[in-house]
Structures are given as C-alpha cells and as structure tokens.
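Feature request, filed as a ticket because there's no other form

It would be nice if the structure record came with a short human-readable summary line next to the tokens. Right now we just get the raw output. Example of a typical job, pasted below so the devs can see what we mean:
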Amino acid sequence: MPRLAAASLAGTAIEFYDFFVYGTAAALVLGPLFFPTFSPLAGTLAAFGTFGVGFVARPLGSLVFGHIGDRHGRRPVLFASLLLTGVATVAVGCLPSYASIGVAAPVLLLVLRFLQGLGLGGEWGGAVLLTAEHAPARRRGLWASIPQTGPPVGFLLANGIMLVLSAALTDDQFRTWGWRVPFWFAGLLAAGGLLLRASLEETPAFRALAESGRRAEAPLTEVFRRHWRPVLLSGGGLAIGYAIFYTVTTWSLAYGTEHLGVGRTTMLACIMTAVVIKAPLTPVFALLGDRWGRRPVCLAGCAAAALWMFPMAALLRTGRPLPMALGFTVALVTMVMILSVIAAYLPELFEPRVRCTGAAVGYNLGGVLGGALTPIVATALAGDGGPPWRVAAYLTGIALVSLCCFALLPETAPAAGPAAAPEAATEPAAA
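Raw output as currently delivered:
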C-alpha cells in the first residue's frame, strides 16, 4: 500500500502542477501577452476563459479515460493521462505570444488548455482507484486520501517556482520569458512520473472483473442509465470545494494584485501559507470519515464553508498579509474536509464495472460547476475592484447547494468491524 499510494500521489501532484501553473500564469501574465487588444479587465476575463476551458475538457477526459479504465484496466489510464497533460503543458511554455503570431496565439493556447484538461480528467479516477481498490475496507478512506494530497503538492510546487521567479526577475524579464520556465519544468516531472508508474500492478477489483467476464461493454451508457443520480449529486456536492479553491488560488491573486495594490510575491506567499497549513489535514479528515462516515464530514465542510465566505471576503479586503492568510487558510480547511473523504466516497457509490467512469465523471462535473466558472463570475461580480461581498454571496450560495446534494446521497463507509481484505472493494456499493 505505501508503494501504490506513493505512485498515485506522485502522479496526481505532477498533473495538478501542470493544471495549477496555468491558473497562476492566467492571473499574472497571460491576459496582456495573449489578449493585448483587450482592456485590463477584459484581458483578465479572457485569460480566465481559457482557464475555464480546461475544466470543460475534464468531464470529457473522464468519459474517454473512464471507458479505458473500465474496459481495459486502471493502469493504462495512469500512463496515457500523465503523458497527454505533460506534453500539452510543455507546449504552452513554448507558445509564441500574440505579438509574434497574432490571433493564432490565443487559439493555440485554448487548444493546449483543452488537452491539459482532457488528461487531468482521466488522472484522478485512475490514481484514486489504484489505492481505493487495493486498500482494506476499514482504512479505505485513509489510503484513498493519499492521492488527494497531490493537488496541494502540485500547487505548492507550481506557485513556489512562480514565487522564486517573480522575486528573482524584473517584471520585464518575468513577462518576457520567466513565466515559461515552470511550463518547461513540467516535462521533467512527467518523465519522472512515467518511470515511477512503470512497475504498478492492476487492481484486484479489475482483475476479478476481467476473470469473470463481467466488464461493462459500454460503461458510459450504463452510468447514465443506472447511476445518473449519484453522478449529478456528487458533482453538485463537490462544486463548493472547487469554487473555494479557485477563488483563493486564482481569482484572489488577480484581485489582490490588480485592485488592492498588493505585491505579486506577497499574494503568492499568503496563498501558499494557507495551502501548506491545510495539506496535512487531508489524512486527518479521511480518518474521521473512516470512523464516522463519509457523508457527515462532507456536510460539516459545506456548512462551515457557508459560514466563512463573508468573513474571508472581509479579511481579503484589508489587503494585509496576516488577515488575508487567515481568511484563505480557514476557507481551504473547509474545502479539505470535503475532498479528504471524496476519494473513498465516490468509488463506493458505483459498482466496480463502471466505477472508473462514474467516479471520474462525478468528480470532474464538480470541477466544471465550481471551478470553471468561479474565477470568471467572481471577476465580473467584483467589477473594477469594488468590495467582494457579491463574490462572498455567490460562494455561500454554492455551499448551500452542495450541502443539499450531499444530504441526498447515501452513506457508504463500511460498518465498524474486523478489517476487511482489499477484495472488499470489489463489492457493489450500497447506492
């Protein structure tokens, strides 16, 4: 289990590094470089629009790679998704700006962002099922939460490199070539991740399906015919987690630097502090999910998020590092309460024959609902730098919708008892 968990963690960290480095670049430099004929506000909105395309592509990636995972195994998904995302990310770093090739630059940027999202849409399902389907039932939440620490690791790595470059280079150097370095670095990370995953074994659940001849012929059709309800409810439940994360890590970065006059380095440091504090809490909340159930932890996270959005907006409005870091930290803790248990919760909602497709589609649907639109909507709601109260109201509304969605889902955590063998994960879920 430690070896499998490490390989899953490394892959998700690398893929989310690729995804997050784009979000940071969109907030800082992509608007002027690829949409120079727009006003500053419109350029930021356009850059966030290409950012959102990655989220739109993620459910499509979950359909494509989910089919592969349910028909041919979880292992091939891990290689193909990582390779696709890595190549697309390096290509963004090599892309000429609007000044060099005109309108072809933003078009190519859009295509590469779409390919990034396509690869990431397949990564999560493969990585989570690798651990969830090997883990003993009573500790499935803990082991499955290990890949969930990959996103904060990838975020810290992406923004850490951006922070170093931002501090070491002049503004002109950063905008000319410095922002490209993190994209080029993604190539080395992807190569290392592929080597690490080369020795992985197929999961017991899929081996049992293959041996019994019970693999789904058309996983997607079966999911939408028999499991549409948990797909929609899990997507709606996860929306608040994504909305909080990208409000803190992407929109607030642009809002702070453009409208509050806070330095780029200071904003990045505040956000990274919050991520560092919340990341180790993932296995802690996962253990609570193993002990008390998945759904209660998710409901508590949604309720806490609804109560904190206005205080977070007030702390952000101060423009001072410590209050902003506090606001971001508490917000991300409410988010991690949900995402810490979801890696076990979603697979348990679906039977093994369609588990890769169902879990991945539900997870990435939440990304579209909460992540794709939030930076764009928040930028529009805040306008030219007004108080972010409308942004807080928007996030509170999403939190309440997510709360209702989780309330309608069943509990799936195994009852307390003797530790189950890994094969227990092959049994159909109670849903």
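Something like this underneath would help us a lot:
The chain is about 80% helix and 0% strand.
The two ends are 27 Å apart (CA to CA).
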